[in-house]
Amino acid sequence: MTISNENTQARSRHWLSRWEPENPQFWETTGKAIAWRTLIITTANLTMAFIVWFMVSALVVRLPGAGFKLAPSELFWLTAMPGLAGGSLRIIHTFLVPLYGTRNVVAISTLSLLIPAVGWFYAVQDATTPYWVLLTLSFLAGLGGANFSSFMPSTSLFFPKRLQGTALAIQAGIGNFGVSIVQFVTPWIIGVAIFGSLSGDPLDFSRGGVHSKIWLQNAALVYVPLIALFGILAWFMLRSVPVRANFRDQLDIFKLKHGFFMTMLYVMTFGSFSGFSATFPLLIRQTYTGFPNGPDPLAYAFIGPLIGSIMRVIAGPLSDRFGGAIVTQWSGIGLIVCAIGVSFYTSPTSLAEFPYFLAFMLGLFFFSGIGNASTFKQMPMLFEPRQAAGVIGWTSAIAAYGPFAAGLMLGYSISLFGSPNAFFYWAAFYYAVNVVINWWYYARKGAERPC
Q1: Of 86, 105, 269, 332, which has the fewest beta carbons less than 10 angstroms from its beta carbon?
Q2: Looking at residue 10, what is its pLDDT?
């Protein structure tokens, strides 16, 4: 791996010939403008990736009312599949930037999101669409989740270490807003024929004995032109840092002890954020919608990811100032408290318990958002640039299994025990293990690698 002055432009004008972000003069005269332009464009593309990744979570709560005959376990599997795909494909994305460069990876990955978006547009217009087709499209929505593991490591290469916590928090935090956008916008855009005859015929929707017309396909179609626009912008406006490494060179990250520990910590934070983002609407539907005048899941589901995304942006500069490990420590403690707290309100006897359930669930988003930023501050401090990028990509890949793990484990917990509490108890135990690891290796006085 090299970051050098070799004439990479002779090979391609899309590769920068020199990149020295730690050189103050280079940063001020050349690097800063390129880095921030790259951050803006890549963040816009990452937002679309998160929208597509969590589009399924907003659609599935409407499918039964639109005539799709799906059991609760099948609905949880549909929400889990994007997580399975996102995690698996992120493993591949971990290694792409040093091979193909920022410009190629960001542009092509974004344009690939047109496949699930267009697929869901057609699939939801017919209630007889086979379940295997819905599962396949759910898996393909994971293409959006995969992009994170190449986009974020790429961004870390563009900024000096002193700004990486802030830059990564901004990108990931704004990108995470895609979850809230898709869950907030969906109820509005499916109620109006905003595309006229182009969007097809409406579906008959039934909820609580009340019938209405909805254009469920709008939830996918509205993003198609934006995906195309941002993908094209990336193709023409992005450049690539001359960080080169073949696949074998990049495998050295798996020999790093702290790479393993940081993976565990990021599963605690982003795994929780993504897992609860995907399953929060179904949890509300399963637990509280059965009461008279029960809550509409999508009226509340967007709030959690919104809080987590905001806290990720805020916690980035705080981690730069106070240290990532200390912030991660408080994040883990908060997650433990909220995971145990929510378990008291998952078998309600009345709708009066819903505000407490909601408060603890939002607490999980709050503290996972903080930890998402602080862990990304820790990683660049622990490893040299190319390894840090690889570790960021790998930890992101494993944590992206959050929607799959949460959807699967919550489904089984409810099926076997009639309650999601078994999952929340396991989560609290996992959080506790990570709090100890973080304190021992990174946060305590005299720690092996304070960061």
Answers
A1: 105
A2: 39
Instruction: Tell me the backbone φ, ψ of residue 5, rounded to 5 degrees.
Output: -95, 15
Q: What is the DSSP letter of 165?
A: H
Say if strands 210-214 and 203-207 run parallel, antiparallel, or are unpaired: antiparallel
pTM across the whole model? 0.75
Predicted pLDDT of residue 39: 94
Distance CA 217, CA 399 (A): 30
The rounded distance, in Å, linking the Cα atoms of 336 and 187 is: 32
Other Cβ atoms closer than 10 A to 73: 13
What distance in Å separates the CA atoms of residue 173 and residue 237, rounded to the nearest whole number?
22
**pLDDT tens, position by position, 296-308:** 887 898 899 899 9
In this prediction, residue 208 carries a pLDDT of: 65
DSSP, res 213: E
Closest CA to 339 of 315, 312, 357: 357
Radius of gyration of the chain (CA): 22
* Backbone CA torsion sign across 150, 240, 313, 384: positive
- Class of the CATH domain delimited by 9-443: mainly alpha
Provide the sign of the torsion angle of the four alpha carbons 308, 341, 301, 283, taken in this order. positive
What was the pLDDT predicted at 245?
59
Q: Which of 365, 366, 205, 222 is nearest to 296 (CA)?
A: 205
Q: Which phi and psi angles does 210 have, rounded to 5°?
A: -100, 130
pLDDT of residue 365: 96
3-state secondary structure of 221: helix
Distances (CA, A) of 149 to 106, 172, 311: 11, 11, 20
**DSSP annotation string for 100-161:** H-HHHHHHHHHHTTHHHHHHHHHHTT-TT--HHHHHHHHHHHHHHHHTHHHHHHHHHHHS-H
pLDDT under 50: residue ranges of the chain:
1-10
Q: Please give the DSSP secondary-structure letter assigned to residue 4.
A: -
Mind listing the pLDDT tens digit for each residue in 309-346?
Answer: 899 889 988 888 889 999 999 999 999 999 999 999 99
Q: Which of 39, 11, 122, 65 lies closest to 285 in space, CA to CA? A: 65
Measured CA to CA, the distance from residue 99 to residue 32 in angstroms comes to 24
The pair phi, psi for residue 214, each rounded to 5°, is: -135, 150
Q: If DSSP states are collapsed to H, E and C, what string results for 62-115?
A: CCHHHCCCCCHHHHHHHHHHHHHHHHHHHHHHCCHHHHHCHHHHHHHHHHCCHH
Q: Pick from 241, 213, 243, 254: which is nearest to 395 by CA?
A: 254
Q: Are the C-beta atoms of 49 and 113 separated by less than 8 Å?
A: yes
d(CA 283, CA 286): 5
Instruction: Show me where the domains of the chain are located.
Output: 9-443
